[in-house]
Amino acid sequence: MDDLYSAEAVEGIAHETTSQGQKVFVWQKPRVGNQKSRGTILFVHGSSMASQPTFDLQVEGKPYASVMNWFATRGFDTWCFDCRGYGRSYKGDDVLATISDGADDALAVADHMRDEHGIEGPLMVYGISSGALRAAKFAERNPDRVSRAALDAMVWTGKGSPTLEARAKKLDQWRGTTRRPQNEEFMWSIFNRDHPGTVHDDFAQPFIDQVLELDDSMPNGTYIDMCANLPLVDPKKLTMAVAILRGEYDGIASMEDLLEFFAALPNADKEFAVMPGISHASFSQKNFMITYQILHAFFTRPEPLYRA
Questions:
Q1: How would you label 285-308 residue by residue, b for 16+ Cβ within 10 Å and e otherwise?
Q2: Domains of the chain, earliest start first
Q3: Tens of pLDDT along 196-207?
């Protein structure tokens, strides 16, 4: 497929499972046509939006705005889910939605995919921001279930992160309540806090509208974890192939912090990719296609024939 922007509007399929006895909404977009499968990708969302706006963004006349459409068109089976506390999943006040909770939810979804839909073998996993921590924690706990892990806008210790430094000033506020309000002003702040101008003009408002259609508040667990409980992932326990993606202007993840994490990864099949002109929300940026291409290359990379 020569046109990088080529993608079909793929029909999605809704599923449901449970994690810790609570509902988890699961969304699938299968590969298009009779293509040979290139693998199965599980996408894991971040702190401030549910899965469908993040990974299946609907923009009129631009089906490639959905990363799930784009990969399904290229032979991948694609899945995402709403962590408990978000979107169409269980949102009771008893759910703080910590990083550990998200890893539990990812395992529940992986089990559902295997047991109910016959998806055997390890998955390819992509997570963004706190979703990268959720995905990494899932992979750390279940290394046999993940073949390749792509971690975008992740943070390890929090060292050198201006966004987390500012957020920590409200730590008592986050700890004082289970959820925080969500509104359009806050959503725009995600796009503008690091480097205004990077967001795609056609993607921003549809993304905000689709996030707010599902949620008017968000759980505080990942904010508390990222301000007070880092590090949450041990890179030495990530034995699968790993890609670290960092936007040039991302204020969450400092280069120094991520390079130290990268150096500790034990598998030589790893890469560190810096994405020019991108801040934090990769798939909603003007340069989103760079992220797609990095992921496509990583997920289609042949396994090494020789290991020393």
A1: bebbebbbebbbebbeeeeeeeee
A2: 13-299 (3.40.50.1820)
A3: 999 999 999 999
